[in-house]
Amino acid sequence: MTAAGRVVLVTGAASGIGRAVAQAFAENGDRVAVVDIDEAAAGAVAAELGALPVTVDITDPESVAAGVELVAERLGPVEVLVNNAGIVAGGGPLTDLPVEIFDRVMAVNMRGTFLVTQAVANQMIKAGAGGCVVNISSIGARQPTPGLGHYEATKAGVDALTRTAAIELAGHGIRVNGVAPGPVITPMTAGLADNAEARAAWESRIPLRKIATTGDISPLVLFLASPSAGHITGAVVQVDGGQLLM
């Protein structure tokens, strides 16, 4: 890491896991771009962290290209990318799920991850200094939950993109890994977490008997982006309190 820190781009950084990850990198001395579709929220978080706010619709190639270029102009070429932005958008059995919900989740979680990875990887290749990509996946890619098949399918796709990108980009000195959380307390899950019965049902599936906080996720992201993980690529590591063991 240089004296000024690395240039780190985090998508979906205005709340939840993304915000915690952006804060962890900022506290590490890195120069962070808080990327989010919510302009006001991104601005507020960036102001708090001393970071750069960037408004991007990750489903739109032109918006992604403009955002990545803005980061390069203001901070320098991206050295670490964290693809965190993702949505659930609703739920229900596949037989009843509105196709509009399926399409929206695919657009954000899969298309968005692809578009940002493509833009940043090309920038990294041009800069010639290598880099790191960390994709936020989910244990749902490997452990199905009824009613969330649309979301979990996108996360399985993110895992596949992670492995393929790791192979294709290794020759450029770019490592690509994933972090797969179990349930995490975020604004997206706060309603369920505040419901005692729903929370107990969640925790009954977790050997450590607790739902993760965002602070349980960010240390692994920082590690995978660090020189200490210099020989790790193509891995998707779960942070689930042991849920996949059940």
TrEMBL record:
| Keyword set, alphabetical order | Oxidoreductase
- Molecular function in Gene Ontology: oxidoreductase activity
Top-level taxon of origin? Bacteria
The UniProt entry, under PANTHER family, shows: DEHYDROGENASES, SHORT CHAIN (PTHR24321), ESTRADIOL 17-BETA-DEHYDROGENASE 8-RELATED (PTHR24321:SF8)
Family to which the UniProt record says this protein belongs: Belongs to the short-chain dehydrogenases/reductases (SDR) family.
What name does this protein carry?
NAD(P)-dependent dehydrogenase (Short-subunit alcohol dehydrogenase family)
Name its species: Sphaerisporangium krabiense
Q: Which lineage do the record's taxonomy fields give for this organism?
A: Bacteria, Bacillati, Actinomycetota, Actinomycetes, Streptosporangiales
